[in-house]
């Protein structure tokens, strides 16, 4: 994909790159120093706080919703007490920004597990203040919740056993496909099956780990979800000899961090946090930590940053 198409893509996907990608972050803020605390007249005094920032100020706690098996974005290793991953690291950057905007308040981070089915309701209900996983931002979801600027661009593909003779969704006619309940992949594969009358038996699992287990155990012929998660399973399970990702992209999935709608102070804090991270190269460094280097848990994905994501980060101020 050439740079012009990539730019159009990044601007078009849900409007999440906020303004035009050619604009520099300091231009969007009138040349202000993004590392300086916002003026007291903005949103960081108790009298003017609203929404999530008021809740966090009053309780001293911010609650992160996380996924248990969305490696390398948000996951928990056996025996661990807290989640880790690319999205978790980005959310910690948002927490740091919120603390700064609350004049250096000491905040405690609480964690609550969510699934594909429960994550949106968890944010809407206030159970989670910030959802940090592998969640696609699209127009339909934006009617219920808000999203950060794009933090990753993935796409639906298939995971199959090597030697299964499956190269694309067309080879699934009469076979069983597992998807994870509540995902955009689930909706896309059901629509594709109906449109082309493929006769695929589609079953829905509770989470990605259960979907993978069904495939590995022979209860499904393929597992459809975002390509990066599939590569993550191969690396995590050391399944290079037995599993492979196949097919063209069936959908494109722009990920964002999720928070409550109609909360302009929180939206500004999230955008400010990611913009500041871009300016000090922290977005690219965080990406490299999880996708280009051995992860803290030892896996190596070696997935270069896509042109689309490169342009999104550049639009937020990330330099090469």
Short characterization:
It is built from eleven helices and 13 strands. It has 320 residues and is α/β, with parallel strands linked by helices. Strands 7, 8, 9, 10, 11 and 12 form a six-stranded mixed sheet that branches.
Order of helical and strand elements: HHHEEEHEHEEEEHEHEHEEEHHH
Task: State the helix count.
Answer: 11
Mass-distribution shape: globular
Biggest β-sheet: count, sense, barrel?
A: 6 strands, mixed
Rg result: 20 Å
CATH architecture of the largest domain: 3-Layer(aba) Sandwich
User: Can you identify the CATH class of the largest domain?
Assistant: Alpha Beta
At the fourth level of CATH, the homologous superfamily of the largest domain is Periplasmic binding protein-like II
CATH topology of the largest domain: D-Maltodextrin-Binding Protein, domain 2
Distance between the termini: 19 Å
Structural class: alpha/beta
Question: Helix fraction?
Answer: 25-40%
Average predicted confidence as pLDDT: 89
Q: Roughly what fraction of the amino acids lie in strands?
A: 15-25%
Runs with pLDDT <50, length 5+? 1-35
